[in-house]
Structures are given as C-alpha cells and as structure tokens.
Description:
The protein has one domain. The strands form two sheets. Strands 1, 4, 5, 6, 9 and 10 form a six-stranded mixed sheet that branches. A four-stranded antiparallel sheet has the order 2-3-8-7. The chain is an alpha+beta fold. A hairpin with a 5-residue loop joins strand 9 and strand 10 (about 135-150). Residues about 155-165 and about 190 have low confidence and may be disordered. The protein has helices spanning about 50-55, 100-110, 155-175, 180-190; strands at about 5-10, 15, 25-30, 40-45, 60-65, 65-75, 80-85, 85-90, 115-125, 135-150.
Amino acid sequence: xxxxxxxxxxxFRIQQKENEPLKIIGYAARFNxxxxxxxxxxxKIAPGAFTEAIGKSDVRALWNHDPNYVLGRTxxxxxxxxxDEQGLFYEVTPPDAQWARDLVxxxxxxxxxxxxxxxxxxxxxxxxxxxxxxxxxxxxRELYDVSPVTYPAYPTATSGVRSLGDVAxxxxxxxxxxxxxxxxxxxxxxxx
Length: 192
C-alpha cells in the first residue's frame, strides 16, 4: 500500500512556557470533517483511526514533509502525538537550528498555517449512496509523519491527483464495493 498525504487548515501555534523549550502544537488531522471535493469524491477520518498506528510507529515531525528538516521524533520524545475527541494532536520541540527558527517565525506571522500527515490505510469504507462518494478512513496502518506545510498536499492537483490515483487503484482492485462508474472513468483518465 502506498503512502498518502493529507492536509488541513491547521490550528497550531507556538507555545513557550517559562523555563521550558518552545513548542509547535496543533492538529495534524481532524475527525469526521469532510475534505474538499475532488473528482466526485470526498474523504473523512473516523475517530480512533490512528490509535494502533500511534502505538507502533516511530513518527517524525517534518517541515514540509522533507526528511532533511526533522523537527522532532516520537522515539526520542521531541514529538508527542495523541488522539483526542477532535483529532490527531501533536506537540513538537523544534531543534535549535536556523531553518527551525525561520519556521517558527513564519508560523508566528501566519505565513505557515496548515498541517499535513503522511500515512497508509489499513481499513476504509466507501459510501456511494450520495453525490459525492465519501471515503472514510477507519484505520491507519502506518503513520509516517506530521508536518507544518506551506502548500497542503490534499487540495493541490499534482500531489492530490497522485494520492487519489493510488486510492482509486486500491478501491478498484477490491472485490466490492466498486466506485461508481462516473468516478472510475475519471480515475482511469488520471492513471495515464
């Protein structure tokens, strides 16, 4: 299963308490919120979708999903992630590096205001009863990273199309249920 990337308008901020290091805190994902419509489908994440992945993954916080800019990591405690009633919450202590200080300043100014996460899906459900079709991510297999981002991957054409194509291939390969005909035709066009 290929890695997918999704982004949301972030609710993250810089926090610095007295005698504690500066932290970037916010949500990488929100539960039960529908994505923007793309090619006749929307997507949402079910509560609890990250529970198992959080427990087994060494998740990184990356700047713009770039592995050269590691903000923190769960393995060493510089990144904490958890699910709450709203979604996937993260808190990261960035390194004392110029690029990280620049990012913090961009967040403070409001220039960077969205979050994203990279993952693979274990369990999904498709609701084809309405228009658009809705894909619900019930269980995440692997959570790779959470990232403050300049341009979110989900609404953009290039990254969004690639991820949607992967989803469509997996959905078409499954025995049932199949995507509606109008969606399959559009997804075939994207596979070219």
